Amino acid sequence: MTTRAVVLIGPMGVGKSSIGRKLAKTLSRTFLDTDSVIAREHGPIPQIFAQHGEAYFREVEREAVARAVADGGVVALGGGAVLNESTRELLREHRVVLLDVSEAVVAGRIGHGEGRPLLSGVDEDPMIRWKRIRAERWPVYESLADVTFDTSRGHIAYVVSAIAEWVQEEEQ
User: Fold this and answer.
1) Which domains does the chain have, with CATH numbers?
2) Which residue numbers belong to the known binding site?
3) Does the pLDDT value for residue 74 go beyond 60?
4) Residues annotated as binding site for Mg(2+)?
5) Whole-angstrom distance, CA of residue 74 vs CA of residue 56
6) 144 alpha carbon, distance to own chain's centre
7) Residue 38 in contact with residue 48, Cβ under 8 Å?
8) Residues within the annotated binding site for substrate?
């Protein structure tokens, strides 16, 4: 059944978008990044947070996720998309891949938090904030995940290949 989406979840900076694009190509499926969809339809995400707040953003995000997974394919979610109960219920109908990363590796990926509303503009080191957000969300990620892959080591192609193999085994 190929209408079930392969949904990538996990903390900021794990590589959901990069891996998702390559995974979709490997599996010959469509790819949607819900953050990109939201930005295209509503403007830059930091601007949405600044003008309307996180609650408004999460509702827009919930709608974007519902549309994205409806068509199957590979879908990368923003790190906080799983905070919405309706989204969590929806994800139970799909294959959910949790991506994780070590703190040492993600520090280089997130830098000073630019472009990430929950990490920038706060009186806290972005890495400390990232660790706290990850810890708060981790139980939710784990409860939704069918499988987990670490993106800390090895080339991205290795991770993509391992996920593709898992998807193909699940579909047999």
Assistant:
1) 6-171 (3.40.50.300)
2) 13-18, 35, 58, 79, 116, 137
3) yes
4) 17
5) 25
6) 12
7) yes
8) 35, 58, 79, 137
Say what the pLDDT of residue 62 is.
Answer: 95
Helix ranges (H only) for the chain are 16-27, 34-42, 45-52, 54-70, 85-91, 103-110, 126-144, 156-171
Residue 121 banded pLDDT, cuts 50, 70, 90: low
Contact status, residue 28 vs residue 168, Cβ threshold 8 Å: no
Residues annotated as binding site for ATP?
13-18, 116
Confidence class for position 110, pLDDT limits 50, 70, 90: low
Q: Is the pTM of this model over 0.70?
A: yes
Cβ-Cβ contacts under 8 Å for 122 (sequence gap 6 or more) = 129
Q: How many residues does the chain have?
A: 172
**Residue 170 is encoded by which pair of tokens?**
């699940």
